[in-house]
# Entry
Amino acid sequence: MEYRQLGRSGILVSTVTLGTMTFGGKGGYRRVGELEVDQARQLVDRALSAGVNLIDTADCYSYGRSEEIVGEVLKGRRDDILIATKVGVPTGHGPNDEGLSRDHIIAACERSLRRLQTDHIDLYQAHQWDGKTPPEETMDALDTLVHQGKVRYIGCSNYSAWHLMKALGISDRLGLQRFVSHQIYYSMIGREAEYELVPAAIDQGLGLLIWSPLAGGLMSGKYRRGQAWPEGARHTTDWGEPPVSDWDPVYDVIEVLVNVAERHGASPAAVALAYLIGKPAVTSVVVGARDLAQLEINLGAAELALDPADQAELDRVSQPTLLYPYWHQAANVTKRLSPADESLLRQSR
# Structure
């Protein structure tokens, strides 16, 4: 297992993170997984034995049950693992049971600490942008939690680039704790993050944590053109993440992915994960699993090294079209590009 520095923080994180959306199975999360304590313990045991040192959860997953299970499973070995959780998505029906107000952040953190049975959260993440709360209030509340010792580092998730830069600018201007990470959706069929979020992470020194790196299982190799979909698969339900409007390019990517996997004697899922681990600014891919067999496949990515030819082949079949102003920059700004700019534009040259 490789370990990478998380942004500009001093902590090292495994390139594979164990996600826990499959823990609990309450409400709509039942479509993702229904693991309870004993099954979750098996996954955590195997992940730790493979060198995984970060577990990612959220207060909204199964209405807090995921955090409770994580807390139960980590009894007696809390010091062996880093815990990341999130705040901001609705967790109740009250008007203040969501968002990034000081009131909600402080109260939600206290509840997460109780559910996780710990005295601190290693990485506390703003789960989504709150356009109603002044970001100064949000960043100050997160800063307070760090100075109280309840949170070690802060990150965000699902921010747009201007949201991210606004938050970072406020932190810098007011001398508040700064985000060290950004958790984003990024996959071989969803490379939109490369337009702005990846360059911003490079420029600002953030580590990227990748959720749904297999695009909700689409990159597992089980979905093939002209073949029946696997029974009970997430995409046979009304689970809409990630959205797919055109299946032809998705199947094109899958075919190349399967071919590369066959050359390596590896699973398509492991190749798809290794591809992202090799991308700029990516610190870790967050993988969930419904059982040990799925987890073993995903852990295989940590030991898989793709050569430049593999990476280039996968790049070509999945490359997003350059939007304006990027096509103009690619054509005209030839000698004045930063490493952040190059992360997107070098592929078009």
About this structure: The mean pLDDT is 94. The first helix runs from residue 37 to 49. The two ends are 33 Å apart (CA to CA).
